[in-house]
Amino acid sequence: MQVKGRQSSIGIHECFSSDNEEQVHKKEQTLPVFNEGMHYYLDKSFTNAIKCFEAVTEINPYDHTAQFFLENTIRYIQKGVPENWSGVVEMISK
């Protein structure tokens, strides 16, 4: 991820320990599939990434991170991937 005002990207982790117990359970349950989706996403294997992110959001429709990457993946399939794409998400607002 590249944060607004910064030139270089940073790695981030989703902290969901403050979510309610049901959400924590669902996120722990879907974490391996989400990680697989991220692997496909970064490899530009978007068809496989969609399958993973859809599987996650089917179990947990409130997983906003999986939904975010699902929407990005669909957009890349529909509109193409920028030539300089590295998988880094640029945040344009704080």
Helix and strand layout, with pairings?
Elements: H1 21-42, H2 46-59, H3 64-79
Question: Outline of this structure?
Answer:
The protein has about 90 residues and is mostly helical. It is about 55% helix and about 0% strand.
Describe, in plain words, how this protein is organized in 3D.
This protein is mainly alpha-helical. It has a domain of 44 residues. 55% of the residues lie in helices and 0% in strands. It contains three helices and no strands. Helix 2 runs antiparallel to helix 3. The model has no long low-confidence stretch (mean pLDDT 82).
Strand tally is 0
Annotation field: number of helices: 3
Shape: elongated
Biggest beta sheet summary: none
Q: Uncertain segments of ≥5 residues (pLDDT<50)?
A: none
Query: What gap, in angstroms, lies between the N and C termini?
Result: 13 Å
Share of helix, binned = 55-70%
Mean pLDDT: 82
Order of helices and strands: HHH
The gyration radius over C-alpha positions equals: 14 Å
Task: Report the sheet-strand fraction.
Answer: under 5%
Q: Which properties best describe this structure?
A:
55% helix; 3 helices; 94 residues; mainly alpha; elongated; 0% strand
